[in-house]
Design goal:
The complex is a heterodimer of chains A (400) and B (508). Chain A has 400 residues and is mostly helical. Helices cover 75% and strands 0% of the residues of chain A.
Chain lengths: 400, 508
C-alpha cells in the first residue's frame, strides 16, 4: 500500500514494469528485432507500406482466431477445430452469396450466427458433458472439414460479390485528398489515427483523475506526460505504413476492434477475471461461486464467433471458398498464442501478446517469402521458432 | 565408534538475501527418536534437504558425519546409499501404481537378465507391509488407499532400502488420531529394530509422547537440544524455545455472548457418492447463533468437511433436509447461491482449493465479491483496490504491495488473504475448515484474534478442526461427529479432550 503512495521515479517505474512483464515485452522486442533484420536483408522492401499492409492482411485471419484462443488456453482448454470451422463457415457464406445471391449483410449475420451455434455445440459437450476440449475439438476438426466438403462438393465457390470481397481486401475510402490509389497520404486513416490518439489521451487522463478521486497515488505529472506522449507516438508510428499506402483495410479495422474489445473483456470484466481464475485454479474458482460450466460454454461460443469472423475474412480475401480453406489455421493460431506468452498450463496470457505472436509468425513467413526461401524450409523455420519461443518461456518461468 | 549416528556440524546455508541456516548443529544418537521442532521457516526442511543431498555438497558450509565418517552427498541416491531416507509431507507415490510397484520404484527386483521378477517383488512387498503393520494386499492401488496407509507405504519403501536414518516431515499432519497413534507405534517398533528416526512435527503433544531427544530450531539457529530420557520437558517449554517467548495463554479466549439463531439445519442427509445405500452425512440437525464459535470436532473421515461443503452447495447430490438462514428457508444448489445467502467457506486445502496462485492479492481477495464490485459485468477496479486495502490492513497481511502474487506469500499471510476474501462477502455464517493448518504459531494466534473480532461483529463461526486443543481453546460450543452422525454436543465449560475423544470414536 505504501508503494501506492510513494513518489516513484521514472527509472523505478520502468524497471518495475519491465521486471513484471518481461516475457511480453521480450516478444515485442524480438518482433522489432526481426523487422530490423528483415528490413536490412530485403534491402528495405520489407518495411515499405505496401509490404507491411500485406503482412497485416496475411496475419489478420490468424490474429482474429488468436484473440479467442487466448481465452480458451487461459481457461486450460484447447481448440483444434478453428481452422475447419472457419473453412466451413467461409464455404457456407460463399454459397449463400454466390449461388443464392444473398446480400453481404445477411450473409455476415447468418455466418456469425452459425459460428455461435457451433460454439454452443462444442461448448455444451465440453462444459456440460465433461468431455475434454482436446477430444471435442479434434472431433470438430473432422466434422466441420467433412461438412465443408459436403456443402462445397469439393468445388471452388466463386466469384463472391464485391462488397463481400471488401471484407478481406478492401480499404477505407479516401475522403478529400485523392492522390492516386496506391501512393501517398490517406486522409481518413489519418483522421482515425488522430481520433484514436485523442481517445487514448482522454482515457489516460480520466484514469488519473479517478485515481486522485479515490485517493490513490498517481504517477508524477512529468512521467505521466512522457507516458502519454510515448503511447501516442507509438500509435502514430504503427499507422504510418498504412497511412502512406492505401489506408486501413476493413479486415484490420475489424481486427483492431476485436483486440480492443477482448482486451477490455479480459482486463475489466467479471467474465474475464473468472476465466483467468478458473484457468489458474478450477476448484478455488468453483468454491468462490463462479459458474464454471457457463463460463466454459461462453468461451467456446466466443471462439465459434471468432472462427466465423476469420472464415469470412479469409473467404473475402481469396474472393472464393475452397475445400482446403482454413487448413492448419489451428496450428498457426495456437503457435501465435503461445509465442505471445499465454501459458500452456492455463491461467496466464494476454490478447496483446497473442497479436504480437501472430505478427511475429507472419513477419517471419513474409520475410522468407520476399527472400525466396523455399516453402519447405519456411515450414522448418516456423516450427523452430515455435519451439524456441516456448523454450524461452519455460526457462524464464524456471528462473522466477 | 561414535555415540552419534548422525552429526551435522556448523551447517550454514544461504539463499540470495537470506541465511536460512546459520551455524546449525544437530547430533542424533544411534537408535533414538529425535524430534526436530520449530516454527514455519525455522529451517527444519532446509536442514533435511542438506542432509538428503537435495542441496548437494558445496552449496552449504559445514559437515555431515554418519557413524563418524564425513559424507558429501551429491544427490538423493547417494544419501540413500548411506542409509538416509526422507519422507516428505507431500507423499511421493505414483497414484495409479500399486503398493509393490511403488515400494520398488527405481529399485526394481530384477533377475540376471534385467527383467522384473514380479513374484519376488510381491513377496518382498508383503514382508515389508507386515513390518509396518499394513494389512492390505501389495496389489492395492495407491489411489484407493487413505493417507494413513499411503504414509505407511512410504515407510515400507524406505525400509526396502536398508534405511538407518529415517526422516519423517510432518507425518501426521493429514492423519486422524487413530492413524497417528498407529504410526507412532510403528515408529517405536522401528526403533526397537535399531532404526534411528528424525521426527519433524508441529504437534508437540506427539513429540513429547514419542521423542527421546528434542532439538529446537528458530530462525535458522539451533536453540537447544534436550534429552527427554533424562529430564521432563513440557509443551510450554518447547513453545517458549520455539518462539523465544513464554506464552501464558495459547488461545486468546474471549467469552462471547451468543445471540439469536441465525442458521438452522434440520435432518440434513447426504448420500455417499461412491457407496450406494450409505449416507456420508446422516440426519444431522444443529443451530448456529449470532456471535458464537461452534467447534466441529471429529476424526478424519467423520464427514465434517463433507457437511460443510454440502451446506455450501459444493458437494453431494440427492441431499435431503432443510436450512433456515435468519428464519427464512433457503435452497442452496451451488456456491454462488451460498454466497448470496450469506454463507462463507474457508477450505481446509489452501493451495489446491483456496488460492489462485498466479493471481495477485487483489484478484484473489475479490474473487467471491464481484457481484458487489461490478456494474453491468464491468469491474470497478479502483473500488477493488480500496476494498482489498481495507481487509489487508484489518487482517495485517504482510506484503510488499497489493499486486504481489499470492504464491509468494507465507502460509499465514495466504490464509489471511483467503479470510479477507470471505469477509468481503459479508457472510452471516462463516465456516472455517482447519483455519490454522500448516501455519506458524504467531500467525495462528493472529487468526484466533480475527475470529474473536468477527464474532464480536455478529458473525456466526463454524470451526472445523482436527487439533483438539484448538477446538477446546476457541469454541463456545462443540459438536462432535462420528461416521456422518452427531454423537454429542458439549459446552466449552464441560468439554475436555477425553470427552471429545470419547464421542469422536463413537462412544455416547
Amino acid at each position: 500500500m505504501d508503494s501506492l503512495k510513494k513518489e516513484q521515479s521514472l527509472g523505478e517505474i520502468l524497471r518495475f514494469q519491465l521486471k513484471n512483464n518481461i516475457r511480453q515485452y521480450a516478444m515485442f522486442f524480438v518482433l522489432i528485432g526481426i523487422w530490423l533484420i528483415l528490413t536490412i536483408a530485403t534491402g528495405g522492401v520489407f518495411i515499405q507500406g505496401r509490404n507491411l499492409t500485406n503482412l497485416l492482411l496475411q496475419s489478420s485471419f490468424i490474429a482474429v482466431l488468436a484473440v479467442g484462443m487466448v481465452l480458451v488456453i487461459v481457461a486450460g482448454h484447447i481448440d483444434l477445430s478453428v481452422g475447419s470451422i472457419a473453412g466451413f463457415i467461409g464455404a457456407v457464406a460463399a454459397i449463400l452469396n454466390v449461388y443464392l445471391g444473398w446480400n453481404t449483410i445477411f450473409v455476415v449475420v447468418v455466418a456469425l450466427a452459425l459460428g455461435i451455434v457451433i460454439g454452443l455445440w462444442q461448448g455444451y459437450w465440453i462444459a456440460y458433458q465433461g468431455i475434454p476440449a482436446f477430444i471435442v475439438t479434434l472431433a470438430g476438426m473432422t466434422i466441420f472439414r467433412g461438412l465443408l466438403l459436403a456443402v462445397g462438393r469439393g468445388e471452388t465457390i466463386a466469384p463472391i460479390s464485391e462488397s463481400f470481397a471488401a471484407l478481406g481486401g478492401g480499404y477505407l475510402p479516401r475522403l478529400f485528398i485523392n492522390v492516386g490509389e496506391r501512393n501517398g497520404f490517406h486522409d481518413l486513416t489519418a483522421i482515425l489515427v488522430v481520433l484514436l490518439i485523442i481517445a487514448f489521451i482522454v482515457m489516460q487522463l480520466r484514469t488519473r483523475q479517478k485515481r486522485v478521486e479515490y485517493g490513490f497515488s498517481v504517477l508524477p505529472i512529468n512521467v505521466e506526460i512522457l507516458k502519454i506522449v510515448g503511447g501516442s507516438l507509438l500509435i502514430g508510428v504503427f499507422f504510418i505504413p498504412l497511412m502512406t499506402y492505401r489506408g486501413i483495410p476493413y479486415s484490420i479495422l475489424i481486427l483492431m476492434s476485436l483486440v480492443l474489445f477482448y482486451t477490455f473483456l479480459t482486463n475489466n470484466t467479471v467474465f474475464g477475471r473468472h476465466v483467468y481464475a478458473l484457468g489458474g485454479n478450477k476448484e478455488a474458482a468453483r468454491l468462490s461461486g463462479i459458474n464454471i460450466r457457463r463460463k466454459t460454454l461462453m468461451i467456446f461460443v466466443s471462439m465459434g464467433f471468432l472462427s466465423a469472423v476469420s472464415g469470412l475474412i479469409f473467404t473475402a480475401r481469396l474472393k472464393s471458398a475452397t475445400a482446403s480453406a482454413g487448413n492448419l489455421f489451428e496450428l498457426d493460431t495456437i503457435a501465435a498464442t503461445i509465442i505471445g506468452g499465454t501459458s500452456t498450463l492455463g491461467g496466464e496470457g494476454t490478447v496483446f501478446g497473442a497479436i504480437v505472436g501472430a505478427l511475429l509468425m507472419s513477419s517471419i513467413t513474409n520475410g522468407m517469402q520476399i527472400l525466396d526461401v523455399p516453402s519447405e524450409w519456411q515450414m522448418v523455420v516456423r516450427g523452430l521458432v515455435l519451439l524456441l519461443a516456448v523454450w524461452y518461456d519455460v526457462s524464464m518461468r524456471k528462473k522466477q | 565408534m561414535s555415540e552419534y549416528i548422525l552429526e551435522m556440524q556448523n551447517i550454514v546455508k544461504e539463499f540470495p538475501g537470506v541465511r536460512a541456516l546459520d551455524d546449525v548443529n544437530l547430533r542424533v544418537k544411534k537408535g533414538e527418536i529425535h524430534a526436530l521442532v520449530g516454527e514455519n521457516g525455522a529451517g527444519k526442511s532446509t536442514l533435511m534437504k542438506v542432509l538428503s543431498g537435495v542441496y548437494p555438497t558445496g552449496t552449504y558450509q559445514g559437515q555431515i558425519l554418519i557413524d563418524g565418517q564425513i559424507q558429501s552427498f551429491n544427490g538423493i541416491k547417494e544419501s540413500e546409499a548411506s542409509g538416509v531416507a526422507v519422507i516428505y509431507q507431500e507423499l511421493a507415490l505414483v497414484k495409479f501404481m500399486n503398493v509393490a510397484e511403488n515400494i520398488f520404484l527405481g529399485n526394481e527386483v530384477k533377475d540376471e537378465r534385467g527383467v522384473i521378477n514380479w513374484h519376488k517383488t510381491y513377496a518382498k512387498a508383503r514382508d515389508l507391509l507386515s513390518e509396518v503393520h499394513l494389512d492390505i494386499p501389495p496389489t492395492t492401488k495407491i489411489i484407493n488407499m487413505g493417507i494413513g496407509a499411503q504414509q505407511l507405504t512410504e515407510i515400507a519403501k524406505a525400509l526396502s532400502k536398508d534405511t538407518q536414518i529415517l526422516v519423517l516431515d510432518e507425518p501426521t499432519a493429514a492423519l486422524n488420531e487413530s492413524e497417528s497413534a498407529n504410526l507412532l507405534g510403528i515408529i517405536r517398533k522401528l526403533k526397537e529394530k535399531g532404526v534411528t528416526c528424525i521426527y519433524i512435527s508441529h504437534k508437540l503433544e506427539e513429540v513429547l509422547e514419542i521423542a527421546d531427544s528434542v532439538t529446537v530450531l528458530r530462525d535458522g539457529h539451533t536453540i537447544e537440544t534436550r534429552d527427554a530420557t533424562k529430564e521432563k520437558i513440557t509443551e510450554d517449554q518447547i513453545i517458549s524455545m520455539m518462539v523465544g517467548r513464554t506464552l501464558t495463554q495459547r488461545f486468546p479466549r474471549v467469552e462471547h455472548k451468543a445471540g439469536d439463531t441465525i442458521m438452522k439445519v434440520s435432518n440434513w442427509t447426504v448420500p455417499h457418492p461412491d457407496i450406494p445405500g450409505k449416507n456420508i452425512i446422516d440426519n444431522v440437525s444443529f443451530e448456529i447463533k449470532k456471535g458464537e464459535i461452534l467447534g466441529l470436532a471429529g476424526l478424519m473421515g467423520a464427514g465434517r468437511t463433507e457437511l460443510a461443503m454440502s451446506l455450501f452447495g459444493a458437494f453431494g447430490t440427492n441431499i435431503s433436509g432443510e436450512v433456515l438462514i435468519n428464519d427464512v428457508k433457503v435452497h442452496i444448489a451451488n456456491p454462488e447461491q451460498a454466497i448470496q445467502k450469506g454463507l462463507g467457506y474457508v477450505t481446509e486445502d489452501r493451495k489446491s482449493k483456496g488460492l489462485v496462485q498466479g493471481m495477485n492479492i487483489i484478484e484473489n481477495s475479490t474473487l467471491a465479491s464481484h457481484y458487489r464490485l461490478s456494474r453491468g459485468n464491468i469491474i470497478n477496479k479502483l473500488e477493488e483496490i480500496l476494498l482489498t486495502t481495507k481487509y489487508v490492513k484489518q487482517l495485517h497481511v504482510k506484503t510488499t504491495g497489493l499486486e504481489q502474487l499470492v504464491k509468494n506469500l507465507s502460509g499465514g499471510n495466504q490464509q489471511k488473504v483467503i479470510l479477507g476474501k470471505w469477509l468481503m462477502t459479508q457472510p452471516t455464517v462463516l465456516i472455517l475448515d482447519e483455519p490454522t493448518r500448516g501455519i506458524d504459531v504467531g500467525a495462528k494466534f493472529e487468526i484466533y484474534n480475527i475470529m474473536n473480532e468477527l464474532v464480536d461483529q455478529g458473525v456466526g463461526i463454524v470451526m472445523i478442526s482436527s487439533e483438539l486443543p484448538e477446538v477446546l481453546g476457541m469454541s463456545d460450543r462443540i459438536i462432535v461427529m462420528h461416521e456422518g452422525k452427531f454423537t454429542g454436543e458439549l459446552d466449552s465449560g464441560e468439554a475436555s479432550q477425553e470427552k471429545v475423544m470419547h464421542l469422536a470414536t463413537g462412544g455416547r
